[in-house]
Amino acid sequence: MAGKAYNKIAVAVDGSGTSDLALYEAIRVASGSGATVLALYVVDNGVMLFDAGFYDPTQIERAYLDSGKKALESAARLLENEGVTFETRLVSDPAVIGDVAGSINAAASEWGADLLVIGTHGRRGVRRLVLGSVAEAVIRQSTMPVLLVRGKDAD
């Protein structure tokens, strides 16, 4: 294979320590290859599907948007400090309602990424069944290579 191994690396960020580790790994890979990194935050709109009387989903949506903006601003500062060419994207209208993994894959593919980096908590057993795993769903659905970065707080 001639040229760079990866030209465009998408990394899912959410402001957690685990996603920070994924971002550091994306920076490491990009620094070695000169690739461009896309820091990607997908708003989890699944909770907004429920109609529960006096519930106002706009407040939750605004909180998710604010959280996403902060996570992307933090990622941008780190990427800039490391001298990595980057873009950021806040996906507030996910491709797949209630499916963060599907929306991460869709946004990365749309951008033309040839590698997707995502952090995983490494939960097992009942905790994984109850909490689910965005990383696992990303792997199942992805059409590109996925690099999993295990969080330090893994069980």
Automatic annotation (TrEMBL):
<keyword id="KW-0963">Cytoplasm</keyword>
<dbReference type="InterPro" id="IPR006015">
    <property type="entry name" value="Universal_stress_UspA"/>
</dbReference>
<dbReference type="GO" id="GO:0005737">
    <property type="term" value="C:cytoplasm"/>
</dbReference>
<comment type="similarity">
    <text>Belongs to the universal stress protein A family.</text>
</comment>
<dbReference type="InterPro" id="IPR006016">
    <property type="entry name" value="UspA"/>
</dbReference>
<dbReference type="Pfam" id="PF00582">
    <property type="entry name" value="Usp"/>
</dbReference>
<feature type="domain" description="UspA">
    <location>
        <begin position="6"/>
        <end position="150"/>
    </location>
</feature>
<dbReference type="InterPro" id="IPR014729">
    <property type="entry name" value="Rossmann-like_a/b/a_fold"/>
</dbReference>
<protein>
    <recommendedName>
        <fullName>Universal stress protein</fullName>
    </recommendedName>
</protein>
